[in-house]
Amino acid sequence: MKAWLQLLKLRITVASTFTTIVGYVLARGQFDWPLLPVTLGILLQACGSAALNQVQDARVDALMARTAGRPIPSGRVSRRGAAVFATLLLAVGTALLWSVSTSAALLGLGAAAIYNLVYTPLKRVTPFAALPGALIGALPPAMGWTAAGGYLQDPSIHLVAFFFFLWQIPHFWLLLLFYGQDYRDGGMPSLLDRFDRGQVLRLTFLWIAAVCAAALLLPLTSLFERPLLAYVLAGAGALVVARAVALLRLTAPGVAEAAAPFRRACRLRFMEINTFALLVCVLLVTDALMVAGR
Q: CA-CA distance, 47 to 70, in Å (whole number)?
């Protein structure tokens, strides 16, 4: 059972589902019973797509220390069995979501298509696969929004989706910096093959700053009506950018990529940008519930 659960990449799929809930509450202004099938349907779709990704990546995963213990390369689950399992999850999730919102179901299938048919094969041939891959993180809030009856033409949800699109890039690049040797062992093209480490660190810092700047656009929409929450958002963003300056100090020639200080700094920035994204979600939901309850 544990091996089958590991196919689902639950940390990623649950996080994706959480942003869907955020989009739903932003449009509806409350937690209600229709949210349950929406959440379950999107979670099953995401889990199916994640399991299918492990089927696709099985040979590469076997070459990397970080992923060699996954269910398929370790031999605990067959590729055929995992493929059937993934297809079943996708089908059930889509059917459940379709019963509530056709638009959300189609967006979910679109996210799966981008992940499995675009991003997964593309990451084997170009180090810039994270850019189209970031669309995957932008779609779940829109899925929740439309499932709750929101209009996809609304610029407010566009800004939320844009924030999560930007957030995906430093999220991935910090992983790349932390697990650089693993990606080389797997034969995966890397930004470190195109740019030197200092350039990648500076690019990552700029993307982190862009993520925090994009978050500051959210209070300009109808999504933020409580000034105090907007101030919290601005303060947190400023803190994340200030701490990300540490990445620029890692460009010094004497700082080795495999050294503990380098890896620790990358890991901390990874945790901080993810915590900031979580804070944005919490503030958005809090504001929506406060406005609906007044």
A: 15
pLDDT tens by residue, 51-66: 999 999 999 988 888 8
| Rounded CA separation 246/264 (Å) | 11
Rounded to a whole number of angstroms, the CA Rg of the chain reads: 20
Residue with tokens 């940008």: 273
What topology is assigned to 1-153 in CATH? Tetracycline Repressor; domain 2 (1.10.357)
* Helices (H), ranges, 99-216: 102-113, 120-122, 130-133, 135-147, 155-178, 180-185, 191-194, 197-215
Give long-range contacts, CB 8 A cutoff, 24+ apart: 217-224.
Answer: 217/159, 217/162, 217/163, 218/159, 218/160, 218/163, 218/280, 218/284, 221/155, 221/156, 221/159, 222/156, 223/26, 223/156, 223/159, 223/160, 223/284, 223/287, 223/288, 224/283, 224/284, 224/287
| Cα–Cα dist 18/278, whole Å | 9
The pLDDT tens digits for 48-106 are: 999 999 999 999 988 888 888 999 999 999 999 999 999 999 999 999 999 999 999 99
